[in-house]
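Each lists sequence, tokenised fold; shown next:
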Amino acid sequence: MVVVACSSPAQTVASTAAPTVGPPKKIGIAYSNLIADSLSLWVARESGVFAGNGLDVDLQYIASSNAFAALLAGQVQASSGGGSEVISGTANGADVVVVANLMPIYPYFMESPATIQKPTDLKGQSIAITNPGATFDIASRVALKKVGLNPDADVTFIKTGSVVNVQSALMSGQVAGGLAQVPDTLKLEAAGLHPIIDMATLNAPASGTVVTMQRAYLDANKDVAQKIVDSIVQAYAVEKEDKATTVKVLKQYLKSEDDTAMGATYDYYVAKAPPTAPKPEQFMDSFAVLAERNAAINSVDLSKMMDATYFQKASGS
């Protein structure tokens, strides 16, 4: 991938960053799924925004909840993953802080084969998820409740372990439903599946992908946290200004040369899901679902689990 820090959008971003003194700070950031939720991290890495802010970032794909586990183990200094995993981790004693929300909406479509014509047809059927308590599980439950189904009584959830495996289960006909995002929806629908629920129309705040750091590391490295969040905000500015560069990054990380699919992904994510400051209401769906299974969740103080000041400073709000 050609570094594009010399392009006009990257120049604009770089000019707003404070001069870097000394060698860049080496850090690891994990992202948990091969989906465009983490687009701003990818663009920050590939467009030179992280480097311009004095960060030498090793972006690591660590599937599903393993990304959060890597954060707790100190393998990485920040993770990009589901808000539900952060809540569960906090209830189990993890001391972590969410500093940005990369996916404040539900960008999911419930995809099903032709035999399922409407959401209520899913009653008695199997639904593919990644892992129990993970984002796909939470979002699937929210979607089913919105259409009048009881997730615990009306369907059977099949654990697959990753977003890629959810797609495989749908393509092979092993399940009657599963969530998907653009551009994966294009591939699934070309194979005969169709969307029966568009979760973006629910207009519900969400925490599908959030950036989290251990509190101890954050307290000792507030400048690093600010640079990470600055880079996310600046990368989103690059995305809006430079479609060509952003599509190249999508092709690289999603391993696709499909111009139509990558263009559709750009149009969807950049227009509908800008990164935001973390807010407690974005986590309420996950909190409610998890609390039904685990009483310890009720002890989690969502306001103490996040710090919006880094994003507010980065965005000037």
Remarks:
- The longest helix spans residues 222-241.
- The radius of gyration is 19 Å.
- Residues 8-105+206-315 form a domain with the D-Maltodextrin-Binding Protein; domain 2 fold (CATH 3.40.190.10).
- Confidence is low (pLDDT under 50) at residues 1-18.
